[in-house]
Q: What sequence folds into this?
């Protein structure tokens, strides 16, 4: 079945450093979504990417969808302590969404 | 503010008990989902429903059943709870069609089975 691999599993950065997490699918995705889960919280939707090669920005966050629609990335510029949490991607079709296992970001102030 | 509400944040049950986890959404979403979240395993889909009285198995349906009698409510049932069902359970919902993959999650129900 479809697999969505997310790397790295963990990332620890100093405040102010950049951070990137990658999401790779074994199959072509119709779209991909990114979520953030704060410690002790629940996943919260960040963004959806639909088009091949699409790039979207939300303040310090940049999201990209690969040309082949099989991979995606989330880049955070100049991390802050408020960025701490686990970042998940999910993709799929016909309701059977597959989540990546997430990247846990910790930020040292 | 749109909401997905899960009835219990924390539950402690004994092995063999029947457990009901309730989820209600107020967004008029057609689709509803139940996931479980475990350390190192991420989010795994148990069941989903795309309409009232409709249900589809996800990746790990064994030991679970669901009920959707009303559009806004989706219940997860553990017929006979076992210790390996100790987990965080997350309910989510979404619109049909273009927005189907954009999920709104509830706060979660942490179940401990002794």
A:
């Amino acid at each position: 079945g479809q697999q969505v691999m997310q790397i790295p599993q963990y990332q620890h950065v100093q405040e102010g450093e950049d951070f990137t997490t990658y999401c790779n699918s074994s199959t072509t995705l119709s779209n991909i979504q990114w979520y953030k889960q704060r410690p002790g919280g629940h996943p919260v939707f960040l963004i959806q990417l639909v088009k091949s090669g699409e790039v979207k920005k939300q303040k310090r966050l940049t999201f990209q969808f690969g040309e082949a629609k099989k991979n995606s990335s989330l880049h955070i510029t100049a991390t802050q302590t408020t960025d701490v949490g686990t970042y998940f991607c999910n993709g799929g079709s016909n309701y059977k969404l597959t989540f990546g296992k997430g990247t846990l970001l910790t930020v040292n102030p | 503010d749109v909401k997905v509400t899960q009835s219990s944040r924390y539950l402690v049950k004994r092995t063999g008990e029947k457990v009901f986890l309730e989820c209600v959404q107020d967004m008029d979403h057609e689709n509803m989902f139940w996931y479980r979240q475990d350390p190192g395993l991420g989010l795994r889909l148990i069941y989903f429903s795309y309409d009232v009285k409709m249900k589809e198995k996800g990746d790990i349906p064994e030991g679970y059943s669901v009920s959707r009698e009303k559009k806004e409510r989706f219940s997860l049932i553990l017929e006979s709870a076992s210790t390996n069902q100790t987990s965080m359970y997350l309910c989510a919902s979404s619109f049909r069609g273009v927005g189907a993959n954009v999920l709104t999650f509830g706060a979660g129900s942490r179940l401990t089975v002794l």
Observations:
- Chain A touches chain B through 22 residues (CB under 8 Å).
- The CA atoms of residues 9 and 101 of chain A lie 8 Å apart.
- The mean pLDDT of chain A is 93.
